[in-house]
Amino acid sequence: MTSPSSILSISVYFGLFGAAVRPCSPLLAVVTRGRFHLRRTDDGVAEPILDEDGNPSGTRYDCVVCGESYERPEVVASAQGGEICSPCLSADREGRHVLPAT
Predict the structure, then answer these.
(1) DSSP code of 98?
(2) 6 DSSP assignment
(3) 66 beta partners
(4) The model scores a pTM over 0.70
(5) pLDDT tens per residue across span 24-67
(6) Domain count of the chain?
(7) Fewer beta carbons within 10 angstroms: which end of the chain, N or C?
(8) How far is Cα 33 from Cα 27, in angstroms, rounded to an integer?
(9) Is 56 found in the same domain as 26?
(10) Backbone torsions φ then ψ of 27, nearest 5 degrees
(11) Quick one: CA dihedral 6, 7, 12, 17, positive or negative?
C-alpha cells in the first residue's frame, strides 16, 4: 500500500500543486522524518549496523544471491534465509527475499 506522504510527495514532484513548490518534494521526507515511508523497523540481522563508537560495522556478510561479501550496513536478512545485499534485494522482482512488514 502506498503511504499518504508518498502520494503527496509524488503529487508535488509532478507539479499538481504548481511549479513553484515542485523542488520542495524531497523536503516532505525530511519533514515527516521518513516515518511514513518505512515499511519495516528492523532489518532482521542480529548485529547492529553501527558499532559502539557510532561507526558503521565492518563485519562482512556473504549475499545469499550473488555470493559477494558486503559490510553490515549493506545487507538485510532474506526471507529465504541468510543475508542479502541491497543491490540484489533491489533486483528481486518477485519479492522472494523481502521480509514481511513488522
Answers:
(1) P
(2) H
(3) none
(4) no
(5) 666 766 776 655 555 667 889 999 998 889 899 999 999 999 99
(6) 2
(7) N
(8) 9
(9) no
(10) -65, -25
(11) negative
